[in-house]
Every structure is written in structure tokens, then in C-alpha cells.
Design a protein that fits this description.
It holds the Pfam family ADH_N. The protein is mainly beta. It is built from one helix and six strands, in the order E-E-E-H-E-E-E. 7% of the residues lie in helices and 34% in strands.
Amino acid sequence: MRAMVFDGNSPLLRAEDVPDPTPGIGQILIDVHACGVCRTDLHVVDRELDRPRRPVIPGHEIVGTVTEVGAGVTGFAVGDRAGDFCVEGCQLRARRSA
């Protein structure tokens, strides 16, 4: 997949080909339709935060469509609209959209 990557060596993001993710146990994969840029993303790019580890694909406020469902997931199915607002280390769950 294509993603904008921040490696920490430059203040610029680079478009890169990165491996397609796969959902693990208890996870879903969302095809992102829109992603917000919040102040936390800017703090990361401005090197004002030590986390997340770099390189990183910024953007943790997303909405899209579920494309894969990992083992043990209930309440989500392929084709559902879903969103997430999570950063590395948090335990927030994806939200299902009506």
C-alpha cells in the first residue's frame, strides 16, 4: 500500500510503498477513506514527542470500511463502516458507524 511516512530525519513526509497490514487476533483491518490531522501528528513531526517510534505513518483519526476481520472479533464484518482514534500504546477500540 502507499503511505505517507515520517522517518524523523527530515521534517517532510515521504510517499512510500509499505507492506499491506494483516489483522491479528482481536483486530480488524480498515480501508481508510479519510484521515484527520491533529495536533498530536504535528507534535510528532515537530519532534516534540518521543513516541511513537520512527519511522511512523502519522494519522490516528480515521474512518473507512472494514476489509478483513481477525480471529476472535465480534461486532464487525467485512463491509462495515468503522473508525478509530488511536495512537501507539492506547487501548481504544474501533467504533462501528451506523
